[in-house]
Write a structure and sequence with these properties.
alpha/beta, 11 helices, 367 residues, 16 strands, 5-stranded mixed β-sheet, 24% strand, nucleotide-binding, GTP-binding, single chain
Length: 367
């Protein structure tokens, strides 16, 4: 392990002392690719029969969305968690057996949202130290990450945490790069760019791919992308997760400073201890989760508004709705009646491919 770490440190040092200009872009691209490969080795070590049983860190996925809390010790993570979960949660005596992190489930706007404290993700987890690796695996399954920062010393912490998460292939608040990438058996590297590129040229692309032993591929660059973007696409194991920075302890700063913080994107100032501004935080969480609530309506009865079926915004067809309830439902499915903003008439008869929107009401008609 230490050899890999040493190699990483070596490359990082070389990147730091290399000037950035057109002449060195090629070289830097190569170094970045090498770095990405080494990092991946750390996250998923080669060989070895896997770790034996022991430190379990698997969290049962409950609820409709899962939020991970990341932050340095003593920024008020636990206070925030217990206060959020305390104010809004269903009280349940969980059996804390292997679930080393289920602090709570909150119900918000009818959706069950699981809040996870991700301990020890900081100090060098991406270098394979400590429990870091299992924590990362859980972090990658979150629908949203909240980075809890101390308002008095936010920026240093923010950079460290972002670097750690980037190091495990988690990309915060960004979209997958618009790059088409297809391996082939022959024909060399075929590069097409639909717009001018400031960083990548054929040379650099070839050398980055050569680092991955790829010599035949079609690469289409559909926006002005960087070497890092290309590496992300080739690695293919990146997850793109929205993220909110929670600035805690605002009871210790002045109103003027607070006004400045409010203008920072993706930021919510709160005080976990005094429970200030929690509603703002929850509202923002809801925005970022982009959940879609579907209400069910049994035949001849009023819709049940108390317990919606909650779907992620990427999968909101009637078929997804049926699968969420029970996988046999789709076999008996004849058509559905939908009321709401996704249809022109109320109700409207739709098939299983119809895409629903937030707060639609649905009634399934079986064969």
């Amino acid at each position: 392990m230490s050899t890999t770490l040493a190699k990483i440190a070596e490359i990082e040092a070389e990147m730091a002392r290399t000037q950035k200009n057109k002449a060195t872009a090629h070289h830097l691209g190569l170094l970045k690719a090498r770095l990405a490969k080494l990092r991946r080795e750390l996250i998923t070590p080669k060989g070895g029969g896997g770790g034996g049983p022991g430190e379990g860190f698997d969290v049962a996925k409950t609820g409709d969305a899962r939020i991970g809390f990341v932050g340095f010790p003593s920024v008020g993570k636990s206070t925030l968690l217990s206060n959020l979960a305390g104010v809004y949660s269903e009280v349940a005596a969980y059996e804390f057996t292997t679930l080393t992190t289920v602090p709570g489930v909150i119900r918000y706007k009818g959706a069950k949202i699981q809040l996870l404290d991700l301990p020890g993700i900081i100090e060098g987890a991406k270098d394979g130290k400590g429990r870091g690796r299992q924590v990362i695996a859980v972090a990658r399954t979150c629908n949203l990450i909240l980075i809890v920062l101390d308002v008095l010393k936010p920026l240093g912490h923010k950079k460290i945490i972002e670097n750690e998460l980037e190091g495990f292939g988690i990309r915060l608040n960004s979209q997958p790069p618009n790059i088409g990438f297809k391996k082939k058996d022959k024909g060399g590297i075929n590069l097409t760019a639909t717009c001018p590129q400031s960083e990548l040229d054929t040379e650099t692309v070839k050398s980055i791919l050569a680092e991955y032993k790829i010599h035949n591929a079609d690469v289409t660059l559909r926006s002005d992308v960087t070497a890092d973007d290309l590496i992300d696409v080739v690695e293919g194991n990146r997850v793109y997760i929205p993220c909110i920075y929670v600035l805690n302890k605002i009871d210790q700063i002045s109103i003027e400073e607070l006004d400045i913080i409010y203008k920072v994107p993706h930021c919510v100032p709160i005080s976990a201890h005094h429970r200030w501004n929690f509603d703002d935080l929850l509202e923002k969480i809801w925005d970022y989760l982009k959940l879609v609530r579907i209400y069910t309506k049994p035949k001849g009865q009023l819709p049940d508004y108390s317990s919606p079926v909650v779907l992620p915004y990427s999968r909101t067809t009637v078929e997804d709705f049926c699968m969420k309830i029970h996988k046999n439902l789709i076999k008996e499915f004849k058509y559905a009646l939908v009321w709401g903003s996704s249809v022109k008439h109320n109700p409207q008869k739709v098939g299983k491919d119809h895409t629903m929107e937030d707060e639609d009401v649905i009634q399934i008609v079986k064969k």
